[in-house]
Write a structure and sequence with these properties.
Blueprint: E1 2-8, E2 17-21, E3 26-34, E4 41-47, E5 52-58, E6 62-65, E7 76-78, E8 80-81, E9 84-85, H1 86-92, E10 95-101, E11 108-114, E12 117-127, E13 130-140, H2 145-158
Antiparallel strand pairs: 1-2, 1-13, 2-3, 3-4, 4-5, 6-7, 8-9, 10-11, 11-12, 12-13
Length: 164
């Protein structure tokens, strides 16, 4: 697996995300190209290794449920990705996410699993000892780079904590 850093683009008005390798090369990008107040926004997903570019409609994030003993940890948020619930889309791809509170530092760890094999993971990144919002240290298999990027994009956009 290769090591990456996932983080938001610094464009304040149209926030996108990118993932860079250890040499600070942008490997994957979700470029926010068209903002919409009432409908889904457009993002261009770019794989800079292969040159593949796809435009997707990404809806507003909504929180649908919060329950359990620790309501903050049981928030269920989602958004539409090309008119389909992002978590349903990910599950239809046969991908499962296992999450846990990181023991070694403050934050979360996510294992991304397909067909019983870990294809990637993401861990909350830190500036010193403080967790950094929307920034994740990512490990990913090259064959699943686009899937892992989409999942970390979904985690960042929803502030999702625990998955089932």
């Amino acid at each position: 697996m290769n090591i990456y850093r996932f983080q938001p683009d610094s464009n304040f008005l149209k926030q996108g995300f990118f993932m860079e390798d250890e040499n600070k090369n942008k490997i994957m990008e979700a470029i926010h190209v068209k903002q919409s107040i009432f409908t889904a926004s457009e993002f261009k997903f770019v794989n800079n290794r292969t040159g593949k570019e796809e435009t997707h409609k990404v809806g507003k994030t909504g929180t649908w449920e919060s329950s359990g003993l620790f309501p903050l940890l049981s928030i269920k948020s989602s958004f539409k990705f090309d008119d389909k619930d992002i978590w349903k889309l990910i599950h239809e791809k046969g991908i499962k996410i296992e999450s846990k509170i990181a023991i070694s530092n403050i934050g979360m760890e996510y294992d991304i699993i397909k067909e019983g094999k870990v294809i990637g993971s993401a861990t909350t990144a830190h500036l010193g000892i403080i967790p950094t919002p929307y920034v994740y240290d990512v490990l990913a298999e090259d064959d699943y780079l686009e899937d892992v990027f989409l999942i970390v994009f979904a985690i960042a956009r929803t502030d999702q904590v625990l998955y089932s």
